[in-house]
Design brief:
Helix content is 52%, strand content 13%. The protein has 164 residues and is α+β, with helices and mostly antiparallel strands. It folds into two domains: 44 residues; 113 residues, 60s Ribosomal Protein L30, Chain: A, CATH 3.30.1330.60. The protein is globular and about 40 Å long.
């Protein structure tokens, strides 16, 4: 979305700069020029992300401590990605399971695997072919946060969705 806004802003700036430097180009009707500018602004504002696009922009599902149960928030996210995959049969995903730092390396690898499997099963139930999903568990080996508190641990208990 940022790149779209940036591209549209650059385009409009170039267009305005080109018009400002050419005195011989004047609108036949100033109200028509204002109307065109207003329509362009409305078109840009109309490019707001849909709920589906907002969900697709999110690539992590999060889990409770020592759990691999899909919660309501994760279900909506998984459903959006599954619908996208069903509509785009030439793409596949990798589901990467993670855990927080508590527990042994072996336990957290198994927990990350269970979490990724839970997301995969949900996607398969929504019509995504099993062969399009790769599962990988990193356990506690790749944290996104390294503090030693609940807020940080919560960020590390996740499954990352990566398109390939």
């Amino acid at each position: 979305m940022r790149s779209l806004n940036y591209s549209v802003s650059v385009f409009l700036a170039v267009m305005l700069a080109g018009c400002a430097g050419n005195e011989s180009v004047k609108p036949a009707n100033e109200n028509a020029a204002k109307s065109t500018a207003t329509t362009a602004s409305a078109d840009i504002a109309g490019k707001q992300l849909s709920e589906q696009d907002k969900l697709l922009a999110q690539r992590n599902t999060y889990f409770a401590f020592d759990d691999s149960t899909i919660d309501a928030n994760a279900r909506d996210l998984i459903k959006a990605h599954a619908q996208h995959l069903v509509a785009q049969p030439n793409i596949a995903i990798t589901l990467e399971g993670h855990a927080d730092e508590r527990g042994t390396r072996e336990y957290n690898l198994r927990l990350g695997e269970r979490r990724a499997q839970a997301v995969a099963k949900n996607m398969q139930a929504l019509g995504v072919a099993k062969k399009r999903i790769t599962i990988n568990s990193l356990g506690k080996e790749k944290p996104v946060c390294t503090e030693h508190d609940e807020a940080c641990w919560q960020k590390n208990r996740r499954v990352e969705i990566s398109y390939r």
